[in-house]
Amino acid sequence: MKRQGQALAEQGKLQQANALFEKLSRQHSNDADIWFMRGTICGSLGQMNECVSHLGTTLALQEDHPGALFNLGIAYLKLEQPRNAVECLLSLLRLEPQHRDAHLSLVQAYSDLSQPGDALHHLEELVQMYPNEVQYLFDSAQIRLHTGDPNTAIAELKRVLALKPSHREALKLMGDACKNIGDTLQAATHYNHALKLTTDDAQICREIGLAFKSMQMFDHAIHSLGKALKIDPGQKNIHYHLASLGVGAVPDKAPNDYVTKLFDYFSDDFEEKLLGQLEYKTPLALNTLLRKHLAGNHALDILDLGCGTGLCGPVLRDIASRLTGVDLSPRMLDKAREKAVYDELLVGDITQHLFPPDRVFELIIAADVFVYIGDLTSVFETSQRLLEPAGRFVFSTESAHDSTQDYVLQNTGRYQHSQGYLTALAGQFGFTIEEIIETEIRKNQGKAIIGNLALLTKK
After folding, report:
1. How many angstroms separate the CA atoms of 199 and 183, rounded?
2. Three-class SS of residue 200?
3. What confidence tens digit (pLDDT) does each residue in 138-157 have?
4. Among 136, 228, 399, 410, which is disulfide-ready with 205 (CB 3.0 to 4.6 Å)?
5. CATH code: domain of residue 247
6. Which domain holds residue 202?
């Protein structure tokens, strides 16, 4: 009868097979293979709880049953219980160390658990067993790039492309990896190769455009970004990049998802690049400006708008009774959290209503935040609402070369603001200007970037 049940299952007659094995399990309750077939068939029928129960009975009868360990691991994955899946699949690998599907399923389980290092370990095992299997090399390169190892990712992608030169996704990922290490020319080259394999990939066209933009090949950038926009007209990010090159209307601000992805992407080495390569000085400069106008000891309720990795936190902690940070990028906030100087960290747009109506602060600081916002009306309105009377608002902007315009969007994708615009907004929203000064706030490609440092007080 077991053979009859197996034949029914192989023919796709699962309900009949299930009924037969149910009958057999009552007659032969100690037969592990019967319970295994019941569990396997229930899994095929989508009856996952029954599947887990029957495979558990199988393992109670025969703890080293390879099929039951594997199928139970798969059932747990389908039930979104990756930790249980890992336990089963690792037990299977102790019996059969080269079980390909067990390694593959562990890659999925560890990915679900956000444990990329463990997922990578099993991909490495698969690559060692199957060195010419393109998919394993590609998946490994993806994880390495996303976990901050672009050079090893590039090495693996070279192997992928040697085996399959027309692997479009590998060409795209190679472009991403080259961009990550600052090799813009190679990034553009690989994106172009990928584009030759398709005619309607807006993402590739956008990346080619951005690569040309970073190389200051603006005409080529406009062409590629325009092509991306033609393929996908709804992409606000492309409108934004084109506007920074003088094509189309200038938006009021950078799109939130662009800012989030940008800073999530750079979060791991953000401070190293900002403080080292760019000689970023704004938090210290704003702190110096603020303390010129503070007398005596203070314990202020402070809001750090766009706090990023928390560079303002340590310089303000000694005058803060409570320090709250807000930022669009969750990964930047993770870095800020590591500093252990903030009392509260919130993910959100700085102009959103993140606080109850009666919540007020004594000081609001925004360092190098408004370079991603052109129209500062909503920012000033929010700050005016959140500050108590006589509360201070200290912030930086990049200085606009053209003082006749309120703000301009540069080809760097950053906004500049005129002092006249800041003065007008201060008057409109009931702030007294304590001081606005122009000074160097950082460098870009060795050149000084001049900015405005402003200290305002709410009337």
Report:
1. 25
2. coil
3. 999 999 998 889 999 999 99
4. 228
5. 1.25.40.10
6. 150-251
